[in-house]
Write a structure and sequence with these properties.
The structure holds two protein chains of two kinds.
Chain A lengths: L1 E11 L4 E11 L3 E5 L6 H8 L7 E6 L2 E2 L8 E4 L11 H11 L4 H14 L15 H13 L5 E5 L7 H16 L3 E5 L3 H7 L2 E6 L2 E7 H7 L4 E6 L14 E6 L3 E6 L5 H11 L2 E6 L4 H11 L1
Parallel strand pairs in A: 3-8, 3-9, 6-7, 7-8
Antiparallel strand pairs in A: 1-2, 1-4, 4-5, 9-10, 11-13, 11-14, 12-13
Chain B lengths: L1 H15 L2 H26 L5 E7 L14 E6 L3 H10 L4 E5 L15 E4 L5 H22 L4 H7 L8 E3 L5 E3 L2 H35 L3 H4 L5 H38 L7 H14 L6 H11 L2 H29 L3 H27 L4 H8 L4 H8 L6 H29 L9 H9 L2
Parallel strand pairs in B: 1-2, 1-3
Antiparallel strand pairs in B: 3-4, 5-6
Classes of the chains: A alpha/beta, B alpha/beta.
Chain lengths: 300, 439
């Protein structure tokens, strides 16, 4: 089921087009990676989904209904540029933010207690935010984002400011939320976490969507028929005179990456190589999200 | 609606609980009292008797010099040089030299009196000396014309004008200048202070939300306009609380101060009665003082004035408050806010200055326009109200203030909405205009 559907959304600010006919949809229980270089329009799109700004053209559906103010309580948003009231006490502030999302004071207190216990931070309740470290404040922000059990969560760089241990804790929480059926839009520049977490990615560049699909399909599509071969001998002179449909991409002492340029199969390549030398290992090189990102953005 | 109440509650509680609020609330009346007391105390310390020597060569003045309160006069008829030599060794304050003259040449004296002193003489003391000398010269001149001072005193008249305003329906109402003036100034000034103090508080609050970057989290839950109005109303309540506490504390403080400072044995009923009379005379109110004040107070419709005061107080604050909020949203730091503060503060300062002129002539066209235009009307119309401006003008001014409030909050809302999410941009009036136009 589609939780969120963005339909041909465009948005123009006074001097530039931030979003140009963007469409995408997020399924229930999916982690959706929203990628793109700086200034591509990701934040503009996220703000439209959060009803902070309105699209000039197109529309956004939430659970099949046009987005409206009743949906605010079902969306949780952790912005990239985020902060808290410095002079306010942690507990009070979390209660306030939860109530703004529509929870009653009682519900909010109960939920907060559970989360504070889970993160083992109950002693922070009466501290002022200015006494917390950046990582600690980020944890509070994470809690206030997910506290009201939204159906859709939007995380913009959720791991920034966390040490690796805490980043792992947050990552596990995100996966847990997904297990419970929450849909998550995940925007980041850390491609390794996209690789780990996302089911589906969309790439926005220069206000246009240039890539959209399940991460496996995209990777398949971006495979370049490059194979990594480990040889048992270091006598690899034959690699210098490969037939025309094969291209040597890279070569080490015992290893080579070979690309097939026509539609001959991997089996043909193995047959050819076995005639020349012994093979210890053979695998297809799957492009990383990082490579796909760089290739598509540079090619655009 | 529920959310805006949450916002108001937070804005209010987070400020009222601050240490700085509590300190200012307690210190405010003390500081005010200190400010008012210091000049009085300093003045007191200056009242020791000064001895002034007068070298009156012709001896004409000695009999007629009035005894002034703080001055101890000693007369000499010896030649100036001798007196001067003595004066140099004494610690007397000043030596006034009046050259010898006769009744007929008395006019020549007016430009030939010198004062010698060890230190520069204050204007007040100069005036005291010259007034004394003048009055003696006047008396002598009167005598030359065959008159005495008594006759002059007898012929002097002192009238009190009782203004009676004729209503259209033939009703009569005695005018109320002195009391009205006081009420006007106080009302206008209170509104002025309130807008400035708490408008700036709104601005700082918006800036705090912007720089701490919490604003994006909040406006994903509430509309920016709700956040802005919630803040403005919350701060207004803080202001009301602080004003109420100030009034209460001042009352308590002054009660405590009078009981502590004034020794009860010093007071006897006769003194008290005299005291009231004295005070009344001081403020220049006609002999039949209290009755007149009461009559004047009755002629002013207090509940009407109070209601109007509340209207202009709240209306003016709301109108300016949203502009202050817009400035806070547009800039990244307090230093950047200066250029946008100008157009807000100028009408405010203008209205308080214009008020003084307007009070002298409450029916001038300056008064009319200033009490109609919403940017100046809260202060100026408040000042004019005790002078019974035509009802249609009051009505027009109120309607325009409401329209003005809707207009400024609309403009401010548009600037606020965009500005609050803009960081690190050089904001000019042109950018503000773009934001307003942006849908």
């Amino acid at each position: 089921m589609k939780v969120l559907e963005v339909q041909s959304v465009s948005k123009t600010y006074s001097h530039h087009k931030a979003l140009d006919n963007i469409s995408l949809s997020v399924q229930e229980g999916q982690i959706f990676g929203l990628l793109g270089p700086n200034g591509a329009g990701k934040t503009s799109l996220i703000r439209i989904i959060n009803q902070i700004t309105m699209p000039d053209e197109g529309r956004v559906l939430f659970n099949g209904e046009p987005l409206n103010h009743n949906h605010i309580g079902q969306i949780g948003y952790l912005p990239e540029e985020r902060g808290l009231y410095k002079k306010m006490k942690v507990g009070e502030q979390a209660l306030y933010l939860a109530q703004l999302k529509g929870l009653s004071e009682k519900e909010a207190k109960k939920a907060l207690h559970t989360w504070f216990e889970r993160f083992d931070i109950i002693p922070w309740w009466d501290k002022k935010v200015e006494e917390l470290s950046k990582g600690m404040a980020q944890k509070i922000q994470f809690i206030t984002t997910v506290l009201h059990q939204p159906k859709l969560l939007i995380f913009d760089e959720p791991f920034s400011g966390f040490d690796p241990i805490n980043a792992n804790i947050i990552k596990d929480e995100i996966l847990q939320l997904k297990e419970n059926g929450t849909s998550i839009i995940f925007s980041t520049h850390r491609m390794e976490s996209v690789e780990e977490l996302c089911d589906h990615i969309a790439l926005i560049d220069k206000s246009k969507k240039i890539l959209d699909g399940p991460i496996n399909e995209i990777k398949d599509k971006y495979k370049q028929q490059i194979f990594k071969v480990d040889f048992s001998s270091s006598n690899l002179g034959f690699l210098d005179s490969l037939p025309e449909h094969l291209k040597l991409v890279q070569q080490n002492a015992h290893q080579a990456e070979i690309q097939i340029l026509n539609d001959s199969s991997a089996t043909d390549l193995i047959r050819f190589l076995l005639d020349q030398s012994d093979i210890k290992g053979f695998e297809e090189k799957i492009p990383t999200v990082n490579e796909i990102f760089i290739r598509t953005v540079q090619g655009n | 609606m529920n959310k805006i109440i949450l916002i108001i509650k937070r804005e209010y509680l987070s400020r009222v609980r601050k240490k700085s609020f509590i300190v200012m609330t307690i210190l405010g009346p003390i500081l005010m009292a200190a400010l008012m007391m210091t000049p009085l105390l300093m003045d007191n310390s200056d009242t020791e008797e000064r001895s002034v020597w007068i070298c009156d060569e012709s001896g004409l003045f000695i009999s007629q010099f009035e005894k002034a309160e703080d001055i101890n006069t000693t007369f000499f008829t010896e030649p100036l040089e001798e007196v001067k030599a003595l004066f140099n060794q004494s610690d007397a304050f000043a030596l006034v030299h009046i050259p010898s003259s006769t009744d007929s040449t008395i006019s020549l004296l007016e430009n030939s009196i010198n004062v010698f002193a060890h230190k520069p003489i204050s204007i007040a003391n100069r005036r005291l000396i010259s007034r004394n000398v003048e009055s003696v010269i006047e008396s002598i001149k009167l005598k030359n014309e065959g008159l005495t001072r008594d006759i002059i005193e007898k012929t002097r008249a002192d009238i009190n004008l009782n203004t009676i305003i004729l209503g259209e329906s033939g009703s009569e109402k005695s005018g109320s200048t002195e009391i009205a003036l006081g009420l006007s100034m106080a009302g206008g000034f209170l509104i002025y202070i309130f807008i400035f103090l708490y408008g700036a508080m709104v601005m700082r609050g918006v800036m705090e939300e912007k720089t701490s970057r919490i604003v994006e989290i909040i406006i994903s839950s509430v509309k920016p306009f709700q956040l802005m109005m919630g803040k403005i109303i919350g701060v207004a309540l803080v202001g009301f609380t602080q004003f109420a506490l100030w009034i209460l504390l001042t009352f308590v403080l002054s009660t405590v101060a009078t009981t502590l400072l004034v020794n009860p044995t010093d007071i006897n009923p006769a003194d008290l009665a005299n005291g009231t009379e004295l005070i009344l005379q001081d403020v220049d109110i006609p002999q039949n003082g209290i009755a007149s004040i009461l009559a004047q107070l009755q002629s002013i419709n207090i509940s009407f004035l109070l209601g109007m005061f509340l209207f202009y107080f709240v209306g003016g604050y709301l109108m300016y408050g949203s502009l202050f909020a817009a400035v806070g949203a547009a800039v990244d730091s307090e230093t950047d806010s200066q250029q946008f503060m100008m157009p807000i503060t100028i009408p405010l300062i203008f209205s308080i200055i214009a008020l003084q002129t307007i009070l002298e002539n409450p029916d001038s066209s300056l008064a009319f326009w200033c009490s109609i235009i919403p940017f100046t009307s809260p202060i100026v119309m408040m000042g004019r109200l005790p002078f019974d401006p035509p009802l249609w003008e009051i009505g027009l001014s109120m309607v325009l203030l409401i329209i003005g409030f809707i207009f400024t909050s609309w403009i401010a809302g548009r600037i606020y909405r965009v500005g609050i999410l803009m960081y690190g941009q050089k904001v000019t009036y042109k950018t503000l205009w773009k934001w307003i136009k942006q849908s």
